[in-house]
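User: I'm preparing a small set of examples for a lab meeting where we compare how different chains pack in three dimensions. I only have the primary sequence for this one, and I'd like the structure in token form so I can line it up with the others. Please keep the answer compact; I'll paste it straight into my notes.
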Amino acid sequence: MKLGKRILGGMLCICLFAATPIISRAEEENLQLYAKSAVLMDADSFRVLYGVNENEHMPMASTTKIMTLLVTLENGDLNSIVTISDYAASMPDVQLNCRSGEQYYLKDLLYSMMLESHNDSAVAIAEHVGGCVKEFATMMNEKAKEIGCENTWFITPNGLDATEVVTTEKGEVELAHGTTAKDLARILSYCIVKSEYKDTFLEITQTPDYTFTDLSGKRSFFCTNHNSLLSMLSGAVSGKTGYTGKAGYCYVGAVKREDKTLVVALLACGWPNHKTYKWKDTAKLMEYGFANYAKFDLDRIEIPEEYLNPIIVSDYDVSGSSVRIRNTERQEQSGEILMRRDEKITIKCERVEQISAPVYQGEIVGKIAIYCGEECVKELTLEMGQDVRQTAFWEIYQKIAEYWMM
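Assistant: Understood. Below is the structure token output for the 406-residue chain.
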């Protein structure tokens, strides 16, 4: 959209919270986390509330399985029967220890994958839903792109470290299985808030323990949920642990209290023997978020009247044309966001000052951006409220004639 050469700009600063923040910005910068990469996210708006190296691409271990679960819920029949392949049965620990040729219900394998983090179950699921692991990984990457992930690449459904050569517009490049803390938090936020299958996702990931058998009934299995956050913090609703020698301990989890849902993502949060670091970092970030952030409704903001002044239409029709506001369709755009007590809202506007006829109702003539600090949290589009046609030559002649006859 080109707005033309003559632009009218404006800014409005509104102080929303006068209270002194419980933790100052200086203290925020020294939360002293163990994780090399971390994010605290508002699950409802996808807004990053706190981050450390949040855009750095890193291995993510078994936190991968939240995407495996999401893609399976969207594309698989949970009552369908999965036959275990030689390849799936060959996966390293952690294993269900299923055997080639055995059959299971897809639903049971999902519990095996999410509660015990079984790698063989994840591969069996991927082969069943996608036809093969590679095709399932393609489905995962397409979903990541749809969600809005900016630096995530899936190769395996279980999170085991892997690399592959991919052909791009710039030629062949080697990509590693991994994500960023920001993308990982975004994926879980989508799973528990925006996904059509969020209820099933939460049901599976919240289950304390689960028992099932193979279809023959000859083998039975008992699974325990290893997401300790569920019993550690009040309001904990979901999460997934992960570990490989390359990734270190990883974690992504969510807590909901009243009207706030927070997600924490941690990558490279210690190596043996520091398995508990992830719980300490998660608790610290969650408590910081709940103590310092409050809901603010962006729809409460009043747009300055001058931003909605009529547009002057030139080329023989000098009357103004009304302007109206339309919401810009962005997936993460939300009516409410979490804001710190010391953050401020500013409004910036760009719009054409004059436009040539003909113009049509709905034609875009500007935009309004609402910022929280330096981050754009909502965008509005300015568009013409009516048609304005170009004045014909005979109408000009008629007006001139009427003027001289007066």
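A couple of notes for your slides: The mean pLDDT is 87. The CA atoms of residues 46 and 186 lie 6 Å apart.

User: Perfect, thanks.
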